[in-house]
Design a protein that fits this description.
By secondary structure, this protein is mostly loops. It has one domain. Helix content is 0%, strand content 10%. A hairpin with a 7-residue loop joins strand 5 and strand 6. The two termini are 12 Å apart.
Length: 283
């Protein structure tokens, strides 16, 4: 028997808004979940086996000048516990809410631990064994099944949202929302990380009305979901972060706005999944 598990993706943080001369970040993207694949002899298992499916991380609410809400972490998916030991695919960390500080992306899940949660100015720790830390641009999970980290939101001049990290086997991280600079200037959200072979999610372009980040690409059977794009910032209504691709993709961060405008919420992560195949070799 072959079992494939994905942890859920973390939610993107909500953007915030500030006056003309004050820079403010869009929300950080959520981290991607881990992929775990296990083979069993049928005789190893009981008639039934316990399992849990990791719940998608929720996107953070938009702020009104005191900081956007952080997203929530993606849940872990498990298989076993009735007869065999519990096997766990860990979830990605939450993206930070936007504020007058930078908004780090959520950390990618590791093979032995969930991705750490980020908060304004504080970067969540990488998941144990191979996880990735959220930063200005998310870090790649590579090809060992760990999740890519979410991109970070910036308060600096040229405050485009950071891109989510791509993971080729685990799920990818979401892009950050675009920030507002002191000029004031308005910027696109970051691109979500994508697994190999999937098209890149488009970002929210800065405009008079911010464009929402696109949803992450869903993975085909047994493959990971892509990270969502971050929403663009705006002088009127910012764009919301996209929803992470199923399974396990990180949600995009919400865009920032000026005080008279409206900041945007972050997007939810992609849910986890447990896939059990009893006829592995097609015999």
């Amino acid at each position: 028997m072959r079992v494939i598990l994905f942890g859920a993706g973390g939610g993107g943080g909500g953007g915030d808004k500030q006056a003309s001369g004050t820079g403010v970040s869009g929300g950080g993207g959520g981290g991607g979940g881990c992929r775990l694949e296990v083979f069993f002899q049928a005789s190893d298992l009981g008639n039934t086996e316990a399992y849990t499916i990791g719940a998608a991380g929720g996107g953070g609410n938009a702020g009104t000048g005191s900081g956007g809400s952080n997203g929530t972490a993606g849940g872990n998916s498990t298989f076993g516990g009735s007869t065999i030991p519990v096997h766990t695919a860990y979830g990605g960390g939450r993206g930070s809410g936007g504020s007058i500080s930078n908004a780090p992306g959520g950390a990618g899940a590791g093979l032995a631990g969930a991705g750490g949660d980020s908060s304004p100015g504080i970067t969540g720790a990488a998941g144990v064994v191979g996880g990735t830390v959220g930063s200005g641009s998310g870090n790649s999970g590579g090809n060992i099944g760990v999740g890519g980290s979410g991109g970070g939101g910036s308060v600096s001049t040229g405050a485009a949202g950071g891109n989510g990290g791509t993971s080729f086997i685990g799920a990818s991280g979401g892009g950050a929302g675009g920030g507002k600079s002191t000029t004031p200037g308005y910027f696109a959200g970051g691109t979500g990380g994508q697994p190999a072979g999937n098209s890149i999610a488009t970002t929210g372009a800065a405009a008079s009305t911010g464009i929402a980040g696109s949803d992450g690409v869903a993975g085909t059977f047994g493959l990971a979901g892509g990270g969502a794009g971050g929403g663009g910032s705006s002088a009127t209504t910012a764009g919301a972060g996209g929803i992470g691709g199923f399974p396990g993709g990180g949600g995009g961060g919400g865009g920032a706005a000026i005080t008279a405008g409206t900041a945007a919420a972050g997007g939810n992560g992609g849910a986890g999944v447990v896939i059990v195949m009893t006829d592995v070799w097609g015999a």
